[in-house]
Amino acid sequence: MARLSGMGSQPTIPAAHGTAVSVLARRAGDEKMTDFFNAFDAERWYFTFADEDDNSLLVQQVGIVAIFHLVDAYLPVRRKGIAEAFSLYHKLYGDKLKGGYREDKRMIVRPFAKMDFEAYRDYIVDTSPMGVVEFKCMSKLSLGHVSDYMFGVYSPAGWYEQVHKPLTTVRAYLPVEELAGEGKARFENFLLKCCELLRPLHGAAGLGIQECHDWEDYQTLEHETAWAYRGIDVCGPTGKKNLREGYKNLNWYTFLAHHWIATLGTPEELKTKLNDERIALLPYKWGTAIRAGDWPALGKADTDPRPDLYVKVNNAIRSLRVQDVGSLHYGSIAGEVRFNRLTSNLWLRRFDTPQEIKAVIDESGNVKAEERHFLRMPSGTPCPWPGIWICEEEPSQGRKTFMHNDLLPEVNGQVVTWRLIKAL
C-alpha cells in the first residue's frame, strides 16, 4: 500500500485503501476504454463504405450519433434553444467544421468563409415560426460524402406541424475517437446540456450510422449494417408524426421527457426495474437520460445480438416505445434489400425476445396487440408522481390534480383506479 501512496510518510489505512481503490478503478476504466476501441477497430472495415468513383471519400460510416426529437420547436423560444445547442456544439467541436448549407440559400454547400457560424445561428433565431429551418454544418463540404463532424437540423414550419404533426429533428455526429480520455465526460456533459436546451420528447445517443445528405442512395448498406450490429442505431433526418406516440431510438444514452418517464413510476421504482448499478439515471430539467453502461455496445449479431444492458433498458421502458414505426426506408422496389414496414418493426424490437415479438407482430408487419402501458394506481395509494390524473371507472369526475404523496381518493365510497395522463 505504501508503494501506491508515492513519496512521504506512510498514509493511514483508510487513505491508503482509498488510493488503491482509485488506482484500480482508473485501471479498470482504462481497460474498458481499450476494449471498446479495440472491438470497434476490429469491425470498422465492415461498416465503412467508400464512394465507387473515389475510394478516398466515404458515403456511409459508423460513429457517435446524437438525435433529438422535438415537438412545437417552431416556437421562437424553442428555436432559440436549437441555436444555443448549435452554439454549444460549435464551441466544443467547431474547429472541425468547414461549412455547410441552408435551405433558404438553395441548399448550396458553402465554406464558412462565405457563410459563417453566426449566419447559421442567426438564421435559426430569425426565421419566422411559420418558416422551415433546415441546415447542416459539416467537416466535409459535400452532399454526397459523409462527415465525421456534423450538426444538422430539420424543423418544419409551424403551420405544417400543426396540420401534419411531424417532429423537429436535431442530429450531431462525432467520430468515436472523441470519446478517448476526457472526451467521454465532455460528450456526456454536452448531451445533458443539449437536453436542457432542446427539451426533446425523446432521443438517443451512441453508436449510429452516419449518412451523407444523399442517404437514400445507400439505404441497402444501412439495412445491412443495422442488422449486423444491433447496438448501432438508425437515425434518419426527419421525424414522422408517429414519434409523438412513442420513442424509436434506444442506445447507449436514451432521453425521455419527464411526463413520459413519470409513467414508469418513481425514480426509485425505475432503478428497481433496471436492477443494475451499471445503468445510470441522469436527470435534467425537462426529463431523464438513461446511460446503459460506461461504453457503447456494438451488438454484433453473431456474438452479442442482445447486449445485456441495452436489453435491461429496453425491458424497463418499452411501454413508451412507438407501436408501429412504419417503414424506415422506401422498401425494396427493384430487388434491392431495404427496410420495409415488417423489417422496420422487427428491428425496433431487436432487444425483445422472439416470443415477445411473435406475440405482437404478424407476418405482414402489423402490430397485433397493445404494448403501451400507463401508470395506474388504486384509491388509498400515495400519489407516486405529481400530475393530472383521471378515474378510469368514473371518467365523469374529470381531471384531478394530485401532488406527490397525496392519497388517491375513493369515488362514491368505492376503490377506483386512477391513471396519470400528464405529469407536472
Describe this structure as you would to a colleague:
This protein has 12 helices and 15 strands. It has 424 residues and is α+β, with helices and mostly antiparallel strands. It folds into 2 domains: 312 residues, no CATH class; 48 residues, no CATH class. Helix 3 runs antiparallel to helix 4 and helix 3 runs antiparallel to helix 6.
Task: Produce a short descriptive summary.
The protein has twelve helices and 15 strands.
Question: What descriptors fit this protein?
Answer:
12 helices; 11-stranded antiparallel sheet; globular; alpha+beta; 2 domains; 424 residues; 4-stranded antiparallel sheet; single chain; disordered N terminus
